Amino acid sequence: MSVPNEFMSSEIQPSFFKRLNIVDWIFAVLLVTGSIYAFQKYSVLMDSYEVGILFGTAFSFIAIGWLWKPARGLMFYVAILSLFAIYLYGTELAAGESNFFLRFLLSAQSATMWMSALFVMATVAYFIELFSGNVFTGKVATAMTWSATAMGFIGLLVRWRETYLHGIDIGHIPVSNLYEVFILFAIITALIYLYYEKRYETRSLGAFVLLVITAAVAFLLWYHFEKGASEIKPLVPALQSYWMKIHVPANFVGYGAFALAAMVGVAYLIKDAAVKKNPEGLLATRLPPLDMMDDVMHKSIALGFAFFTIATVLGAMWAAEAWGGYWSWDPKETWALIVWLNYAAWLHMRLMKGLRGTPLAWWAVIGLFVTLFAFLGVNMFLSGMHSYGEL
Amino acid sequence: MINKKHSRLNVLLEFFGSMNLAITILVAIAIASVIGTVLQQNQPYNDYIIKFGPFWHEVFQTIGLYNIYGAIWFLALLVFLVLSTSVCVYRNAPVMLRDMRQFRVNVKEKSLRLMHNSQSWSTEKSSEEVEKTLRYFLKLKGFRTRIKEHDDHRVIAGMKGAWNRSGYIFTHVGIIVLCLGAYLDGSFGLTIKEWTGRIIPEVRDIRADQVPATARLKAEESGSFRGSISLQEGTSSKIVFLNIRDGYLVQELPFTIELKDFRIEHYASGQPKSFESDLIIHDDLLDKPLEQTISVNHPLIYRGYAMYQASFGDGGSNLSLVAWPFHSQKIQKIDVNVAVKEKRTLKTSAGKYTLELDDFKMFNIFPNTKEERLETGKQFKNFGPSFTFKMRDATGVANEYHNYMLPITQNGRRFILTGMRNSVAETFRYLHIPMDKDDSLDRFMTFHALLHDQIRVKRIAQTSVKAAMGDINKIDQKMQADVVRSMMNLLTLFNQGGYVAIDQDIKKRVPKDKQVKVAEAYVKILQNLLQNTFLAVLKQEGVDTKKSVSDEDNLFFEDAISALAGIGAYGSPVYFQLAEFKQRESSGIQITLHPGQNIFYLGCLMLIVGIFMMFYISYQRLWIILKPESGKLMITFAGSGNRDQREFAKTFAVLVSKAEKFTTGK
Ligand code: HEM
Question: What is the extent of the structural domain holding B50?
Answer without folding.
Answer: 2-91+175-185
